[in-house]
């Protein structure tokens, strides 16, 4: 042993055990603290499930701003009225909508009369009095569980954060600019946010469309009649509905004026009857074109009643389609030029294919 030590030519030096290279670093202290008994003693089941919860939250396939919003709600970083009151920003600790004590974000987003109405009017038709959680994270776990096995789970996970986001935005308008809470406007804004969420995460190629050389995609529509410019967008829309399953689908395909494929989308699920699906496909087209930055649009639908209504001619649309039509007209005001034209079903095969 003495012999070995005496053979060693190097001198003794300090070595920081927790790091791999022996050098001290703040990072190594952080990992040391995480694994130390002090921290371990404090980390009970709750914190273990907490970290699992946040992992699940950050893994959600939704827009980053939604994740940040949910996280802020979870850590009580949203300025509910009670918090504004304690920091003297407002002089009333009560909820400005229902006049009850607004102690937490749970009230603002679930328990408040306005929030409850939004949940009931949303596609979830959720009665928020059916769950009694007092913590925002409990509510999120409740929603995670409730829609875990939903057929369109991915879309559900886009929708409920969007609804929370819009309820919060409406509530802020009440608090800061003294607007009356408007249920219809909130649900409309929610629909837009959902579309934005769907477009924001749709990075996977559409399996129904040829992904190699999309410009060669064969069209039945005669472009020679409509060729104008690459900035003019032609949008073909269609909606279908099955009266036995009460389910429908809608499809949209966009081309520019020189026959080049731009984008397409389709959606299926429970819905109101056919005219509503036709109207929803038109709304999809407007949102898709708008999100891609186009402002000159010629939109084709094979629903004569809808096209007539959109052109100011009275028709026999039902209330559900008419309510979507109002939304379409409101979105279309953001376009510089927009035309709604009727197209024969036989010439609208691509959109029909997407809808089915
Ligand atoms: Zn309230």
Describe the fold and architecture.
By secondary structure, the chain is an alpha/beta fold. The protein has three domains: 16-53, no CATH class; 60-201, no CATH class; 217-355, Nucleotidyltransferase, domain 5 (2-Layer Sandwich), CATH 3.30.420.10. It contains 15 helices and five strands. Strand 2 and strand 3 (261-270) form a beta hairpin. The chain is globular and about 90 Å long. Zinc ion (ZN) is lined by residues 95, 97-98, 100, 102, 107, 112. Zinc ion (ZN) binds next to loops.
The helix content, as a percent range, equals: 40-55%
- Describe the main β-sheet briefly: 5 strands, mixed
What kind of assembly state do the chains in view correspond to? single chain
Poorly predicted runs of 5 or more residues: 203-227
Tell me the structural class: alpha/beta
Number of helices: 15
Radius of gyration: 28 Å
> Mean pLDDT, rounded to whole units?
79
Dominant shape = globular
Measured by DSSP, the beta-strand proportion falls in 5-15%
Bound compounds, each kind once, are: zinc ion
Number of DSSP E strands: 5
Distance between the termini: 82 Å
Integer count of domains = 3
* Largest sheet, spatial ordering of strands: 3-2-1-4-5
Helix/strand order, N-terminal first: HHHHHHHHHHHEEEHEHHEH
